[in-house]
Specification:
By secondary structure, the chain is mainly beta. It has one domain (37-212). The chain is 11% helix and 42% strand. The protein has two helices and twelve strands, in the order αβββββββββαβββ. It has helices spanning 2-20, 171-175, and strands at 39-47, 53-60, 66-78, 82-91, 99-100, 113-115, 129-135, 145-156, 166-169, 182-184, 189-197, 203-212. Strands 1, 2, 3, 4, 5, 6, 7, 8, 9, 10, 11 and 12 form a twelve-stranded mixed beta sheet that branches. The longest helix has 19 residues, at 2-20. It starts with a helix and ends with a strand.
Length: 213
């Protein structure tokens, strides 16, 4: 009896590594461990921020999809060299009022929202809402979640120096199974806030990338 138990135990130890292995043969054209999500991006340029700017560029959630923001970048130039804080805030209630930028200065213009893969049938149209402001909006959620922050340096337009952009790149977090800034419902909004700093003759450019699931 003891010999049989010993033999069974030994067989189990030998077989354990085999059972622990994962046999996975990826489909042709698919990278193992990677599944593309419905992804969009939008850019803006020529944005003139208002005096005492607060929420300057925002993306609001969707009524039908979960919106995950993967990257935001912003930079530009000014009449006078300035370094200012750029704070990423998530609001439970979206801003109202203000004056939205127009044409290329507004990332929310439909023609500026690009599907990352036009061959994918779900990529027919983004449902998130984007906006930028030339006059400060009314902030309805005064106790936001502070998601991230960085300093942005705007060189003078006359000197044509390279700006130090504020870049918030959360895309690598997904690879590491870390949650990225997520918006659920149209009331939730992620904004770049300038903390009431005034930019003399400022002109801003930037981009936003996100997924909809």
């Amino acid at each position: 009896m003891l010999k049989r138990l010993t033999a069974l135990l030994l067989a189990g130890v030998i077989a354990a590594p085999a059972f622990g292995q994962i046999n996975f043969t990826p489909q042709a054209g698919i990278t193992a461990g990677y599944l593309a999500k419905t992804t969009y991006s939008s850019s803006f340029y020529g944005l003139v921020p208002p005096a005492s700017a607060t929420d300057e560029v925002c993306i609001a959630g969707s009524a039908s999809k979960v919106v995950r923001v993967t990257r935001i970048a912003i930079g530009g130039s000014a009449g006078t060299l300035v370094t200012l804080p750029v704070i990423v805030v998530r609001r439970a209630t979206a801003d109202t009022g203000g004056t939205a930028a127009t044409t290329t200065a507004n990332p929310g213009i439909t023609t500026q929202i690009a599907s990352r893969d036009t061959g994918q049938s779900p990529n027919t149209g983004a449902t998130a809402t984007l906006i930028s402001y030339t006059a400060v909006p009314t902030i309805n959620d005064t106790s936001p979640v502070y998601v991230d922050a960085a300093l942005m340096t705007l060189g003078t337009t006359a000197a044509a120096t390279n700006p130090i952009m504020a870049v918030f790149d959360w895309s690598r977090d997904i690879e590491n199974n870390v949650q990225v800034p997520t918006l659920r419902g149209t009331a939730q909004q992620l904004c770049l806030n300038f903390n009431t700093v005034s930019i003399s003759s400022g002109v801003l450019s930037g981009s936003i990338s996100w997924t909809e699931e």
